[in-house]
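Structure (tokenized):
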């Protein structure tokens, strides 16, 4: 539980329904997650999901040659 006594809200999946794994980088060029991150998303806590979002954004901005 959080400090306020409430369960943390779940984080929406970053999936954008453009599912294609880039073979050179091993992540989806739609949501920028690895196959492991995609398959484990439903097991992650809201905190884990929230902490992954900046990583995905970093992948998106640093791999501009992929999309």
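Design, position by position:
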């Amino acid at each position: 539980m959080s400090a306020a006594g409430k369960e943390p809200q779940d984080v929406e999946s970053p999936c954008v329904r453009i599912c294609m794994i880039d073979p050179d980088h091993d992540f989806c060029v739609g949501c920028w997650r690895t196959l492991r991150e995609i398959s484990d998303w439903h097991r992650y806590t809201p905190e884990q999901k929230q902490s992954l979002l900046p990583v995905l954004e970093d992948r998106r901005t640093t791999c501009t040659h992929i999309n």
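Reviewer-requested clarification: The chain has a mean pLDDT of 88. Residues 46-62 form the longest helix (17 residues).
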